[in-house]
Protein 1
Amino acid sequence: MITYILGAGPAGLAAGYYMTRIGCAVTVLEAEREYGGFARTFCHGPFRYDTGAHRFHDKDAEITADIQDLMGNELIKVHAPSQIYWNGRYLDFPLSPVNVARRIGIGTFVRAGADFAFARLRRSKRDEWNFAAKAYRKYGKTIADAFLIGYSEKLWGVPAQKLMPEVSGGRLKGLSARTMLYELLRGKQEKTEHLDGSFYYPRQGYGQIAERLAASIGKENIRLSTRVTKLRHDGTTIQLIECEGHESARPKRVVSSLPQSVLLRLLDPAPPRQLIEIAEGMKFRDLILTALFLNRTQVSRNASIYFPSEDVPFTRLYEPKNRSIELAPPSQTCAVVEIPCFADQPIWVENDTDLIGNVTRELERAGLIRGDDVIGGKVHRLRRAYPVLEIGIHEKLDELRRYLQRFVNLYVVGRTGRFEYTHVHDLLRQGKELAKLMQTEAATDLTLQRVHSG
Ligand SMILES: Cc1cc2nc3c(=O)[nH]c(=O)nc-3n(C[C@H](O)[C@H](O)[C@H](O)COP(=O)(O)OP(=O)(O)OC[C@H]3O[C@@H](n4cnc5c(N)ncnc54)[C@H](O)[C@@H]3O)c2cc1C
């Protein structure tokens, strides 16, 4: 019998890839016409751009080595800086004291320094129970308010006091007091750790990782345009998978990367009502991606530019060509901006022409482009981009986990699936660990069979 994997985003494909490598038979079921989920690359004429600014984080040596094997020469090392646009000025990202002092003015810098020292003296690490508290303790009020609090609220759509500290996604790590002080004393050239400047990236766009994973699984084992509509169970085992317009299948195991609200709704018989309400109450931030196609060679040298100001509707701009020159023609470029929002807000239904016009005007105001550079634009509306990790979320997740654990052949993976702020290397690690677990289970099954037949 086959293991069915629900969803062909990075998590589902990673599970399929590692399971195929240990000789496990898998079939991946994906609702959309393409695989890659939230890590896809769009094509528009000669331009290629991703579902938001993606990079491969080199944080797990074993997983990086696996990806290097998988991608071969197609994985390149990119060296590109990033910046923050703040009050009409550009600052280096991650923030460096030398650059901050130069850009925000000496008065504000002195105030920021005093705040910073005060915050470090007054609070202990125990106070970092929400994102705002963590940011204030680490940087003091002046810097946190200018660069972190407003930005995070724009990104996540809830007050920073209601967010779990982990929404910083490790971005605050390289900005410790020690590194700030070190830089201040030694100058910027001696920067201790460059968080944002060098990273791996596939030549043809981030979606190439999903392409390669899918090719390794075997495209005949991936069913696109196949939406799972029901998971019939007997209380302990998923017995039947039903898909829109397809025959149903009897799975050996089911690996789900679907959002938990979707997974719970698929179960038949249905789970208790209050669990469905918990799952449906967990918020995801949606994303409007606006790509501008430009008749100029480059907008800037940056991998990304961050916009913390609340007056600007987007959080980040990225220029695909600065990751790989193969993503735009030599004399043209493309700028992609990310507008986080909830799908029930008016901006979600704003028409494309207005969105493209507004983005163009904002980028002109920031001195990045001229209106007549724009030769076209494209808008993508993407649901469930970021799981919003609000205070109290872990208790809710524990409750859902306790319920789902009763299904002995169900495994939950993924960023949307587990409602965690994880990245592609984490999802590959999950897939690898899952394959190891299945190998152990298979060995146990065999031993049992031998014992019983012996
Ligand atoms: C703007 C942005 C920037 C990012 N930058 C980075 C980065 O730089 N580096 C990094 O590592 N990560 C980055 N990420 C995160 C990364 O994109 C996600 O971690 C990853 O795509 C999540 O993969 P997943 O498989 O868990 O979920 P998804 O990609 O959401 O995949 C779930 C899949 O399930 C399918 N599905 C849903 N319902 C059904 C159904 N009923 N039947 C069948 N299929 C179904 C969906 O169509 C989808 O393909 C970024 C994310 C965003 C939004």
Protein 2
Amino acid sequence: MILKRDGAVENYAIRRGVPEDAKGIIECMQSVMDEKIYLVSEYYLLTERGERERLKNKDDLTLVCELNGKIAGVTTIQRGMYRKNRHVASLGIAIRKEYRHMGMGTGMIRDAISWSKQQGIEKINLEVFSSNVHAIQAYRNLGFQYEGVRKRQFLIGDRYVDDVLMTYFTSGWNGD
Ligand SMILES: CC(C)(COP(=O)(O)OP(=O)(O)OC[C@H]1O[C@@H](n2cnc3c(N)ncnc32)[C@H](O)[C@@H]1OP(=O)(O)O)[C@@H](O)C(=O)NCCC(=O)NCCS
């Protein structure tokens, strides 16, 4: 549910992405990439056809957040492909600028964590620019812990930022 500035209430739905969502997902991802300050890639590399194929893969999860027929946010969980890292997954998330700080990100990550638990995924990793303080706070609120920092890993314009590695143990394991 979103409470708009004029007092109106709109409902959004978080659901699993299907091949028919390919175009909307690409548009959503590209709009965030166009901002150039949150994601490493500046161009979505898959074509619509490639994205449709990717969405058929049942080993990974793509969640979309839909509002008035438009895809406002996308969250992906990509599981390790080897026997040695099948218990680990990587999380990616992007919400269109106009829909941020309305609870969509928190809702999608909670759903992604539940799905991961059901799949037997024990550890969810993510990487975030040190400059992205809102995202880091959102991840901390959800229980993600710091795992490491790669110093000056990225150059955004003329500013170096660190790559902050964060993780969530779905079993509640706390490192002991
Ligand atoms: C980071 C992101 C996923 C968070 O999702 P969201 O839907 O905007 O966040 P939520 O509404 O669920 O808010 C969760 C917390 O994030 C923080 N936050 C998010 N946006 C914020 C803002 N504009 N100002 C201050 N805090 C903010 C707050 O701590 C918030 O908790 P609160 O509501 O108790 O204050 C989303 O803003 C986004 O996609 N940003 C651009 C792309 C990006 O950074 N992707 C992640 C790359 S690693």
